[in-house]
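Re: that backbone. Tokens:
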């Protein structure tokens, strides 16, 4: 798997000084590379009893529906506030400065359904932890959280203690 790192572009100073940004567009445009990522997630989760794959706007909308198709499950979008048209559950979470919020349709996950949360990067874990709570607010069960990239030094995993966390690549 680690050779996939060659397909990930590292952009220093984006979106602001001091951040090293892991750009997955260079992986996505590589057919065999993109397929390996989805195949690896598929192998990990095909027997995990997943009912729906949950993706977080915006880059989660690339991997989550692709894996949902491979697993034969549904896909559920989690979006920035005021984008979804029907009744929503909302979760607020702390950022470095201030707070942010995410929403999911109240009826997107039926009580007891098993949801796999998928995103591109696990950084501080704030976003993923908030989405896990959002799933649980609707009565869903978090089957696991999957990431293409995990930034180990930010210890995002600590915010997801007790949950099944799986990342393809570690930095
Ligand atoms: P966090 O809530 O800190 O775990 O990060 C939230 C989101 O920010 C992740 O899902 C990524 O999409 C994005 N992100 C954070 N840090 C980086 C980074 N260094 N490179 C690329 N994306 C990042």
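Recovered sequence:
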């Amino acid at each position: 798997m680690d050779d996939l790192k060659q397909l990930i572009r590292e952009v220093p100073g984006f979106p602001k000084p001091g951040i090293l940004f892991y750009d997955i567009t260079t992986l996505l445009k590589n057919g065999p590379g993109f397929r390996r990522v989805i195949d690896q997630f598929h192998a990990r989760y095909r027997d995990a009893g997943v009912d729906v794959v949950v993706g977080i706007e915006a880059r989660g909308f690339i991997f989550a529906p692709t894996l949902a198709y491979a697993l034969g499950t549904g896909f559920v979008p989690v979006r920035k506030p005021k984008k979804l048209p029907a009744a929503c559950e909302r979760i607020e979470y702390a950022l470095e400065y201030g707070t942010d919020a995410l929403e999911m349709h109240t009826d997107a996950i039926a009580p007891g359904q098993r949801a796999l949360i998928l995103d591109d990067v696990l950084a501080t874990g704030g976003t993923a932890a908030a989405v896990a709570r959002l799933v649980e607010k609707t009565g869903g069960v978090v089957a696991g959280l999957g990431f293409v990239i995990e930034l180990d030094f930010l210890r995002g995993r600590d915010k997801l203690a007790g949950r099944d966390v799986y990342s393809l690549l570690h930095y």
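DSSP finds four helices and nine strands in the chain. The chain has a mean pLDDT of 97.
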